[in-house]
Amino acid sequence: MQTPVAERFQQNGFALAAALVDGPRLATFQAEADRLVRRFAKEGHQSDDYWSFDQAVTREPVLYRIHNLEKQGSSPISDLFADGPLHTLASVVLGTRVRSTACAMIVKMPRVAARVPWHRDRTSVAPHTVCNLSLFLDESNADNGCLEVVPRSHLLPDDADVAAIHDRGPVLAIPAHAGDVFVHDVRMVHASRANGTAAFRRSIVIEFAPLGLELPSSEG
Ligand code: NI
What we know:
The protein is 24% helix and 27% strand. The protein contains 5 helices and 11 strands; from the N terminus they run H-E-H-E-E-H-H-E-E-E-E-H-E-E-E-E. It has a 7-stranded antiparallel sheet. It is globular and about 45 Å long. It starts with a helix and ends in a 10-residue tail after the last strand. Nickel (II) ion is lined by residues 119, 121, 190, 220.
């Protein structure tokens, strides 16, 4: 029998919950993600919440993150931010009542998405206190931009050298299916790969903290 998600989170700083969202429910998130990405890529929508970089050769803007996702006027996603299966999972792994504190979509555009460098989302909180949940909307694998982690690195001191931690490893790639939810401690050292394929790799990321714990704003 597989070790429960909460136990794996406590041991390693991360855990994958398979097929947490499926069927028509997953399809509503995928359709909403299509709409939001199309606004930027095809309709010229610009806002401070749509983060992009300029592609090296074409100079075309490449979308990589939609910040404040719950405020983009889309009910399936704002509902997910308000309450639902991700809140339940976060409450189980953190062992307390939780609130959602931030929401974004990670977009790995086909062929042009860059890798995200090694980083920690936060270090100002104790291990096993605040977590990020990533709901995958597409298959995520080593070729199209999957996450990579250094297991148990969430236990290292706040001022630990991220580059040295990554060099020492071990580095674990985290493939996932659409509908899977990846939970990780915000302190964990992680990165994500570039997308060299013709397929999108998108995920909705929501941060959870215990009720009553005030957090400074995060770069995510
Ligand atoms: Ni991150």
